[in-house]
């Protein structure tokens, strides 16, 4: 079962919000509503987040991403639609039950740290446990363990103003981890940090995720950050999710010109992987090696390949072997079985312009969005290209 599911979420501010939703469902756009004094912050947002996944929502300021996040834990009530958390409808909970969910099962890490200046680092890290009513001894132990996880062991008795910005953000992360919540919501959590510290915090989050396997919804306006962190990415514009997929989906097949403009400056060689660009292994059969021998099957490919890599190898690591050989690089699975090849021509081709989005997709087939897939069309043979 999905950990989190959003179903046709709308959030409208202003007069007659229910009427505004009806107009939006009938095809009205955001500007029409704004002219009438109504703001549609989120429009028909649907997605799923699987357990242990980092789901990134990205977009420019005003795109609706932070409003969307606040509907996920009930800080904002949707105008329409619902949020399911472990199968339970969060939007139908009583205020008391909703507070209980927020205090123990969903934690939030804010952009501006939100630390109490009059509390020590340890007390800040244990604040969520204090709200839950956890006894002091256990609270102290769990807060100290969380601080150690984020690299702040030894700083327990310090005050927030004695810490750097990155360290303060680590305290905020420790506070969220101490509660052992099932879901972490992170709202632009690293955007206030200097670039080098921000990169360090990204590394820290990825390392923690390997160990803890939390379910995380991460909000950002930085595409490079989204590409680096996200197992799945939702791109928002004017309140709508305009594309949902993996980093590779979005880079290789942007849904429209807006998404393509976001991705044009991304270093594709560090985001795309061998598995994303590989050709069928059979394409190498019948070709010849650098020594002139014919490749007849998988064993010949593996023997002649200038390098053998896994599917998640960044393509930047393929340049050297491809430059020195006309034989394709071999791509294998976890058992060492050949699953594909990367010829030199294919490597060079994917570094060019992104593939254009289909002008008019035919027979759209809804896909499971939580696993990084997006809307698939019969016209493109099932390649993920756009969101619902």
UniProtKB/TrEMBL annotation:
Alphabetic keyword roster: ATP-binding, Nucleotide-binding, Transport
Q: Where is the ABC transporter domain?
A: 4-263
In terms of CDD domains, this protein maps to: ABC_Pro_Gly_Betaine
Where are the residues of the annotated region Disordered? 362-388
Tell me the GO molecular function terms: ATP binding
Taxonomy, superkingdom: Bacteria
Q: What SUPFAM superfamilies does the entry give?
A: CBS-domain pair (SSF54631), P-loop containing nucleoside triphosphate hydrolases (SSF52540)
Q: Fetch the PROSITE patterns from UniProt.
A: ABC_TRANSPORTER_1, ABC_TRANSPORTER_2
Answer whether the UniProt record assigns the keyword Transcription regulation to this protein.
Answer: no
Q: Which InterPro entries match?
A: AAA+_ATPase, ABC_osmolyte_uptake_ATP-bind, ABC_transporter-like_ATP-bd, ABC_transporter-like_CS, CBS_dom_sf, Gly-betaine_transp_ATP-bd, P-loop_NTPase
Q: Which family does it belong to?
A: Belongs to the ABC transporter superfamily.
Q: What is this protein called?
A: Glycine betaine/L-proline ABC transporter ATP-binding protein
- Taxonomic classification: Bacteria, Bacillati, Actinomycetota, Actinomycetes, Kitasatosporales
């Amino acid at each position: 079962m999905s950990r989190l599911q959003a179903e046709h979420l709308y959030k409208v501010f202003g007069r007659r919000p229910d009427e505004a939703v009806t107009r939006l469902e009938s095809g009205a756009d955001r500007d029409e509503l704004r002219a009438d004094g109504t703001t549609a912050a989120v429009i028909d947002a649907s997605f799923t987040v699987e357990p242990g996944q980092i789901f990134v929502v990205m977009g420019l300021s005003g795109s609706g991403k932070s409003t969307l996040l606040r509907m996920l834990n009930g800080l904002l009530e949707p105008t329409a639609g619902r949020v399911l958390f472990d199968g339970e409808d969060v939007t139908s909970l009583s205020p008391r039950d909703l507070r209980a969910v927020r205090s123990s099962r969903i934690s939030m890490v804010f952009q501006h740290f939100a630390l109490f200046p009059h509390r020590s680092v340890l007390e800040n890290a244990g604040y969520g446990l204090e709200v839950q009513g956890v006894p002091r001894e256990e609270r102290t132990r769990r807060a100290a363990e969380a601080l150690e996880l984020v690299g702040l062991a030894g700083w327990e008795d310090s005050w927030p103003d004695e810490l750097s910005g990155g360290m303060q953000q680590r305290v905020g992360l420790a506070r969220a981890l101490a509660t052992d919540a099932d879901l972490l919501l992170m709202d632009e959590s690293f955007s206030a940090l200097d670039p080098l510290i921000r990169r360090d915090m990204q590394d820290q989050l990825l390392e923690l995720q390997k160990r803890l396997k939390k379910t995380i919804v991460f909000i950002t306006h930085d595409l490079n950050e989204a590409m680096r962190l996200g197992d799945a990415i939702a791109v928002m514009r004017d309140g709508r999710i305009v594309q949902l997929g993996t980093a590779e989906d979005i880079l290789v097949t942007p849904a429209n010109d807006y998404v393509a403009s976001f991705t044009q400056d991304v270093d594709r060689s560090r985001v795309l992987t061998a598995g994303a660009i590989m050709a069928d292994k059979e394409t190498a059969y019948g070709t010849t090696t650098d020594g002139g021998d014919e490749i007849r099957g998988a064993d010949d490919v593996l023997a002649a390949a200038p390098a053998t890599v896994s599917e998640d190898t960044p393509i930047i690591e393929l340049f050297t072997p491809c430059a020195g050989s006309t034989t394709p690089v071999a791509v294998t699975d976890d058992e060492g079985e050949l699953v594909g090849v990367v010829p030199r021509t294919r490597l060079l081709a994917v570094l060019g312009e992104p593939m254009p989005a289909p002008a008019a997709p035919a027979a759209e087939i809804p896909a499971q969005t939580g696993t990084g897939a997006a809307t698939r069309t019969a016209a493109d043979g099932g390649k993920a290209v756009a969101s619902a």
